[in-house]
Design brief:
- The protein has a domain of about 250 residues: Type I PLP-dependent aspartate aminotransferase-like (Major domain) (Aspartate Aminotransferase, domain 2).
- The chain is built from twelve helices and twelve strands.
- The chain has an eight-stranded mixed beta sheet, with helices on both faces. Strands 1-2 form a two-stranded antiparallel ribbon. It has a two-stranded antiparallel sheet with strand order 11-12.
- Helix 3 crosses helix 11, helix 5 packs parallel to helix 11 and helix 6 runs parallel beside helix 7.
- The longest helix has 27 residues.
- The C terminus is likely disordered.
C-alpha cells in the first residue's frame, strides 16, 4: 500500500476535525457566537431527546395509549388481491381482452386538448362527477338497463364500498336494520356494517331474496340490498314475481331498495333483464353500477343513480366523503361510451364469457365427475360449483 505524505495526513486530520465540529453544531451540542468563537451549548439536547431513564431519576408512569374503539364495526378479515393474477378469481374481468391500445389513445387525446376543458380536468372537479360522464351514464343505463334518469340523478363514486358508505350516510341512522342477501358479497356486508347499521341476513332461494323470510326477521327495514340481475354468489336471477313482492314490501315498510347491478350487462343467451329501477313507481330504488367489472377494477369508478327527491341529500353526503376523482379518467370513460367503444366492448366480452363458461362446464364434467357439478348460468362472470354428496342447488358450495 502506498504511504501517505505528512501533508496529506495533516489535511485529512483537519478535515476530520471540521466534520466533527459541523456534526456537533448540527446536532445542537455546540453554538457559535459572532466575534467570539464556538462554545459548548448552554442546553444539551440529549436532556430533551433521551427516551430511557437516567440514574437516580424515577421512571415515568406508564402511558395509557388510545384504543381503536371503532374497530368493533370493522370487518375481521379484509379481502385482498394477490400481486399475480390467479385462476378462478371471482369478480375479476378478462383483463387480457381489454383494448389497451385504444384506451391509451383516448388518454392521449385528453391530455392533448387545449383550453378550458383541460384546465378544468386539473382541478378538484364537481363532487358529483364530471357532467359529460354523468350524461353518458344516464344515456347508457336508459338504453341498456331500462333505467330512466337524468344526469342530475347520477353521482360518480370510487366504487361499491364508497357508494354504500354514501347511501348509509344519506339515508340510514345507526342501529336501523338493513336486509342483506345471504350469501352475498362480503365486502358489501362489511361496508354496511361499518356504518353502525344492523345487518339482517335474509336467505336467497331460486327466485332471489326471500321476502317473506326477511319480513319475519325484520318487518320494518330501512334499506334492502339486492343483486337481482345475477345474485352473488349463487347466480340466480330474481323473478318478476319476486321483484314485485320486494317492491310491495318496501312500499309498506317505507324502505329503500339498493339495486347492485354489478354485472347486469352480461347475459349470455338471452337479452339482459331490465333493472328493478324500471319497475319502481314510488322513487325508492337506488341503482348502483360499476366500471370495475365492465372495464377494469383499478379504474375505481362507479356510480349511484338516486331518485330526484333525495339528489340534494346525496350530493351533501358525497361532498363529505372527500374522495377526489380523476377528471381525466372520467373524460376517457365518457369518450369510451360516447364513441360507441363501450357497447362494442360489452358485446365482445359477452361472447368471451359465454365461450369460457362452456369450456369450464365441459372440463368440469370430464375431470370432476362424481366430485362436483359446475352449473351453466345465463348471466354474469362466474359460475357456481356444487360439491359434496348433494350436488344439486342448495347443496354445499
Amino acid at each position: 500500500m502506498a504511504r501517505c505524505s505528512a501533508g496529506t495526513r495533516s489535511r485529512q486530520s483537519r478535515n476530520t476535525v471540521l466534520l466533527a465540529f459541523e456534526q456537533l453544531l448540527g446536532e445542537g451540542y455546540l453554538e457559535t457566537r459572532s466575534g467570539s468563537g464556538t462554545f459548548v451549548a448552554n442546553s444539551v439536547p440529549d436532556e430533551l431527546l433521551r427516551t430511557g431513564t437516567r440514574r437516580g431519576v424515577p421512571a415515568a408512569p406508564p402511558v395509557r395509549r388510545p384504543t381503536a374503539r371503532g374497530a368493533r364495526t370493522l370487518p375481521q378479515t379484509v379481502m385482498t388481491t394477490a400481486d399475480k393474477r390467479r385462476a378462478f378469481e371471482p369478480a375479476l374481468p378478462a383483463l387480457d381482452l381489454f383494448p389497451i391500445q385504444l384506451w391509451t389513445r383516448l388518454i392521449a387525446r385528453q391530455w392533448s386538448r387545449n383550453g378550458p376543458e383541460l384546465l378544468d380536468s386539473l382541478g378538484y372537479g364537481d363532487a358529483a362527477g364530471h357532467e359529460r360522464l354523468r350524461t353518458a351514464i344516464a344515456q347508457y343505463v336508459g338504453a341498456a338497463r331500462g333505467v330512466a334518469c337524468e344526469a342530475a340523478q347520477v353521482i360518480v363514486t370510487n366504487g361499491l364500498q364508497h357508494s354504500l358508505e354514501m347511501i348509509c350516510r344519506a339515508l340510514v341512522e345507526p342501529g336501523e336494520s338493513i336486509w342483506f342477501e345471504d350469501p352475498a358479497y362480503p365486502p358489501a356486508r362489511a361496508a354496511l356494517a361499518a356504518t353502525g347499521a344492523q345487518v339482517v341476513l335474509v336467505p336467497v332461494d331460486a327466485e332471489g331474496i326471500d321476502v317473506a323470510a326477511g319480513l319475519a326477521k325484520s318487518p320494518t327495514p330501512r334499506l334492502i340490498y339486492v343483486t337481482p340481475s345475477h345474485q352473488f354468489p349463487l347466480g340466480v336471477t330474481m323473478s318478476v314475481a319476486r321483484r314485485m313482492q320486494l317492491l310491495e314490501a318496501a312500499r309498506r315498510s317505507d324502505a329503500w331498495i339498493v339495486e347492485d347491478d354489478y354485472d347486469g350487462e352480461y347475459r349470455h343467451r338471452t337479452a339482459p333483464v331490465p333493472a328493478i329501477h324500471g319497475m319502481d313507481s314510488d322513487g325508492r330504488v337506488i341503482y348502483l353500477g360499476s366500471f370495475s367489472k365492465s372495464l377494469f377494477p383499478a379504474l375505481r369508478l362507479g356510480y349511484v343513480i338516486v331518485p330526484p327527491s333525495v339528489a340534494e341529500t346525496f350530493l351533501r353526503a358525497r361532498a363529505l366523503a372527500g374522495r377526489t376523482l380523476s377528471a381525466v379518467d372520467q373524460l376517457v370513460v365518457a369518450d369510451f361510451i360516447e364513441l360507441g367503444h363501450f357497447e362494442r366492448h360489452i358485446r365482445r366480452m359477452r361472447a368471451a364469457y359465454r365461450e369460457r363458461q362452456e369450456a369450464l362446464v365441459e372440463s368440469a364434467a370430464k375431470h370432476l365427475a362424481g366430485l362436483a357439478v359446475v352449473e351453466a348460468t345465463d348471466a354474469g362472470m362466474h359460475s357456481l360449483a356444487l360439491v359434496g354428496r348433494d350436488r344439486r342447488r342448495g347443496g354445499v358450495a
